[in-house]
Amino acid sequence: MKKIIALLLILFFLVFVNESNQTIIKNQEQIINLLNQKQIEKTVTSSPQIKEKTMTARVTAYAPLDNKSGICADSNPTVTSTGYTPKVGICAVNPAKIPYGSLIYIPFYGYAIAQDTGVAMRNYDGIAIDVVMETYEEAMEWGVQYLEIQILN
Predict the structure, then answer these.
(1) C-alpha dihedral sign at 8, 14, 18, 22
(2) Which domains are delineated in the chain?
(3) pLDDT for res 123
(4) Using H for helix, E for strand and C for coil, what is the string for the chain?
(5) What gap in Å lies between CA 11 and CA 2, rounded to an integer?
(6) Which end of the chain has the smaller Cβ count within 10 Å, N or C?
(7) Are strands 128-132 and 52-62 parallel, antiparallel or unpaired?
(8) Which residue, among 116, 101, 118, 106, has the nearest Cα to 28 in the 3D structure?
(9) What's the pTM?
């Protein structure tokens, strides 16, 4: 079973490149759903094939598709800065500090892929992550948390 899970993770990290050299991660939603299941979490964090980096990050939340605050997007709230539809399992980062496509484990949230950014992420001196929530109320309830996150490469 562990070998199958390790193979799934290796497949996750394989990135397919289309003719215009833009990266496309296939089946992202299915992968995030699998990774967020409890039985896989232990294998991911203990797998020798996956290098992880742990650090403290300021973790906030946003709900771009329920944008009651009006500040959840630099432009079109229905598309991330990398061209994906925002949904739970995606997070915004400063790509100069955490590269797009990074898989991040965030306590109390689960696994997310760095596929968005925002002014607040880029202007923060430390490490900042903004996780996608479905509703404005969920984002406000999340608040601001300082958490030990794991970046899995």
Answers:
(1) positive
(2) 2-152 (2.40.40.10)
(3) 94
(4) CHHHHHHHHHHHHCCEECCCCCEECCCHHHHHHHHCCHHHHHHHHHCCCCCEEEEEEEEEEECHHHCCCCCCCCCCCCCCCCCCCCCCCEEECCCCCCCCCCEEEECCCEEEEEEECCHHHHHCCCCEEEEECCCHHHHHHHCCEEEEEEEEC
(5) 14
(6) N
(7) parallel
(8) 101
(9) 0.69
Tokens 């992968």 correspond to 31
Tell me the per-residue pLDDT of 17-29, one tens digit each, with 9 for 90 and over.
Answer: 333 334 444 455 5
Locate 6 and state its tokens. Answer: 């390790």
Token pair recorded at residue 18: 């289309």
Instruction: Give the tokens for residue 43.
Output: 């294998």
Paired tokens of 39: 């039985």
